[in-house]
Amino acid sequence: MQAVGVLEFGGPEALQVVDLPEVHAGPGEVRLRVHAAAVNPTDTFVRNGDRAEALRKDPPPYIPGMDAAGVIDEIGADAVTDLAVGAAVIAMVIPTGSHGAYRASIVLAADAVAPAPAGATHVEAATLPMNGLTARQSLDQFALQPGQTVAVTGAAGCYGGYLVQLAKAEGLRVIGDASAADEQLVRDLGADLVVPRGDDIATQIRKVAPDGVDALADGAVQKELAAGAVRDGGAFASVRGWGGTGERGIAFHRTSVRDYDHRVDLLDGLRQQTDDGLVTLRVAATYPPEQAGEAHRRLEAGGTRGRCVIVF
Question: pLDDT digits over 209-229, tens only?
């Protein structure tokens, strides 16, 4: 079975096509014929060795990938699911060893797999699970009420874009940052106000929200540069594990999407919101497995709007 992974950690060129043994669904599991796997920043940490210590408990190849879209082609005994063989589905994958989404076939627990959005291609659908669930978790951590204000750094990115749209769907006032080139995109995603991105982000947000925002989702990983935009007693969500400074009574949340593994209810909710037109799926480009390194190279160059997707 075809997959993309690394035998030795390194740059984008370390990614190569490898052959893996065929897998089958066991009790409580389903098997996906993967047609598309989105490329995310976290995938580069598997490839470059940043997570080598955790990965080396398993033998190589190490297969990245947290987003999969495809078709169910096998259902194990006692699997609790309304899905049938042939159903188009999406899933978030937690990579371990060779168990990552960059592979033509993968076995997952049935409660990690949801129907794909009805009008989406496999490529489009693959962009939803991980980033959508991450945005969902940050909003859940904030527990804001309609009418409150949330700011989003990296609003033009995938996590940021989903957070803008999910926040608007909940009746929140949204402030997003953007470069001049991305300003219209962020407005189109639904941001009520757009401020210039940059190291002075807290100052820029305070210009339009002088009392500070109720919460800030830090998709751009600006950490202390952005924390000043939050009001006393507000909330801050970090997608890179930053615990904050404890200042001014701000609740600093570490958003870790691994905590939302097996949350098919939430994944299906994102699917429904996509079907309802509240969430937009954005694809930057597609790549065959042999060019996965080019997809990583493009991602790491920055400025990608939407996800690069590997197609199997």
Answer: 999 999 999 999 999 999 999
Q: What is the pLDDT of residues 227-278, one digit of tens each?
A: 999 999 999 999 999 999 888 999 999 999 999 999 999 999 999 999 999 9
Shared-domain flag, residues 177 and 218: yes
Phi-psi region of 305 (alpha: psi -120 to 50; beta: other; left: phi over 0): beta
- What does DSSP say about strands 230-238 and 213-218: parallel, antiparallel, or unpaired? parallel
The residue segments making up the domain with residue 303 are 2-128+281-311
Sign of CA dihedral 218, 224, 228, 231: positive
Is 267 a member of any domain? Answer: no
Mean predicted lDDT score pLDDT of the chain: 97
Residue 188 has pLDDT above 90, yes or no: yes
What is the DSSP-derived secondary structure letter of residue 103? Answer: B
Q: How far apart are CA 303 and CA 284, in angstroms?
A: 10
Return the closest-CA partner of residue 305 out of 201, 144, 122, 156: 156
Question: For the residues 281-306, what does the mean pLDDT come to?
Answer: 97
Do 198 and 142 lie in a common domain?
A: yes
Which CATH number does the domain housing residue 23 bear?
3.90.180.10
In a shared domain, residues 195 and 244:
yes
Is residue 215 included in any domain, yes or no?
A: yes
Query: For the chain, how far is it from start to end, CA to CA, in angstroms?
Result: 11
Token pair belonging to 20: 């893996």
Tokens of 263: 């949350």
